[in-house]
Design brief:
This protein has 447 residues and is of the alpha+beta class. Helix content is 44%, strand content 15%. The chain has a 5-stranded antiparallel beta sheet. A 3-stranded antiparallel beta sheet has the order 2-1-21.
């Protein structure tokens, strides 16, 4: 006769032990496969990858990155909030660590999905930012639901699912199923923020005002461009009610001719002249293949390099300031806001290492050489927890490290792998042809 009481007790103890084991996973180191480390930049890339250790850039209880950490007397002081773009980049980094044989990374991916499944949302879409409170993510009173961060997370999740789509391992297949459940559960939110009258996507929703945010995603050379693209893909099966691809096509794009040393360039203009606005989506999509003419991105990168060289700084992008505030820094002659409308922008001579790392997507050798030169010129840029977020032309530095910028720094070196995983997922779901079609409209409105 089976003792059901003993059997039940054993089952409960086993479950408790399993849960304890899962929660006891601690990630003290992360590495990726050897071919992803540039020969002359392995130690430096590893240093920045080391940011994503528990208790450094990642909350070991909440299992997500801290948005910002300060380094105070050689110790990490975390700031307890996060946004979902940062979580997405962290997931992509974990996938590459798992591919390198780090078994804990797969457990952590599942734990991060636990967090996402438990976190409060609006019609499936996530808020910005979240406070980290006792290991849980809590929306702030502002009630902002951003299109940009939700799209970035969606593409990052597509990369996670793409990595494991053909795996027979049950744990990896479960990850794919959980990712798809999150993505499908967001459809209604995407429908709500599309404006049929304007033919554009709102920048998001305010639950505080119970209304769409009053501004639109209307520029292609902006970090938000993946939002209308993803909205069209995920609602595709709704037929006539689907968000149309024209929400992406209708966004505007501008270049502006510029002469340097007697040679003419025609760089793409981002709104603020910030480099990440042009490059963040390329961590997930191979835009060099998708854009009809990638020369405008190459020209923009070259001119960013000339500006940086003139001021002895890295490339210019939104970042911390050297007095530990935050600013949307940009290069004036690469800013649509400045060039077309003569608006004031943050054009100070402060640069950020993550922008220089992002240029690896465009020109790997030049990027590595410039990063090495930056470290040689300002050796104090490197802390034991990663590179500080900003340095100005006088050599003054921020004491902050931002997980978004660290995610972009590391993600740039992993972009080929992430691109392939995202494309695998998009192809399997019948989306890739639509992506290619939308990017055919990625041409300047000024001819």
């Amino acid at each position: 006769m089976i003792n059901t009481k003993s059997t039940l007790a054993a089952a409960v103890l086993f479950a408790l032990a399993s849960n304890a084991f899962a929660s006891d996973v601690v990630i003290n180191e992360l590495s990726v496969r050897d071919h992803l480390y540039p020969a002359q930049f392995k130690a430096e890339l590893q240093n920045n990858l080391n940011f994503f250790r528990d208790g450094v850039g990642v909350d070991p209880v909440a299992k997500v990155p801290f948005d910002t950490v300060s380094i105070v007397e050689g110790k990490v002081k975390p700031h307890y909030y996060v946004n979902t773009t940062e979580i997405g980049l962290y997931l992509n980094i974990l996938v590459e660590a798992e591919k390198a044989g780090e078994g804990k990374a797969l457990t952590r991916i599942a734990e991060v999905l636990d967090v996402l499944e438990e976190t409060p949302t609006w019609k499936g879409l996530y808020f910005w930012p979240y406070d980290i409170v006792e290991g849980k993510l809590k929306p702030t009173s502002d009630g902002i639901v951003p299109a940009v961060d939700n799209a970035n997370l969606a593409l990052a999740l597509a990369g996670v699912a793409g990595a494991y789509l053909d795996e027979t391992d049950a744990e990896k297949q479960k990850i794919v199923e959980r990712v798809e459940a999150i993505l499908v559960g967001q459809k209604q939110g995407w429908f709500e923020i599309y404006d049929q009258g304007r033919g554009l996507l709102h920048a998001g929703w305010s639950t505080k005002n119970d209304a769409a945010l009053p501004y639109y995603i209307d520029r292609k050379a902006n970090e938000s461009r993946l939002a209308p693209l993803w909205a069209a893909l995920i609602t595709k099966e709704a037929g006539d009610k689907a968000i149309p691809q024209s929400a992406f096509d209708n966004m505007e794009l501008y270049t502006h001719k510029y002469t340097f040393n007697g040679k003419e360039y025609n760089p793409m203009l981002t709104w603020d002249g910030a480099y990440f606005q042009a490059m963040l989506p390329a961590i997930w999509l191979n835009e060099q293949e998708l854009m009809p003419d990638y020369t405008m991105v190459k020209d923009m990168t070259f001119l960013q390099m000339t500006y940086a060289a003139k001021h002895n700084i890295p490339l210019v992008s939104s970042s911390a300031t050297v007095d530990d505030a935050y600013a949307a820094f940009g290069v004036p002659f690469l800013s649509e806001s400045k060039v077309k409308f003569n608006n004031e922008i943050h054009e100070g001579t402060t640069g950020t290492p993550h922008a220089l790392a992002l240029s690896y997507i465009v020109s790997p050798e030049t990027s590595v050489q410039a990063l090495k030169a930056l470290k040689n010129y300002y050796p104090q840029i490197e802390s034991e927890f990663g590179w500080y977020d900003a340095v100005d032309s006088q050599g003054k530095m921020s004491t902050k490290i931002l997980s978004l910028d660290q995610g972009m720094f590391v993600g740039a070196f992993l972009a080929d792998e992430i691109n392939a995983d995202v494309e695998k997922y998009l192809t399997a779901r019948g989306y890739m042809a639509d992506v290619q079609q939308m990017y055919r409209s990625y041409v300047p409105n000024n001819g």
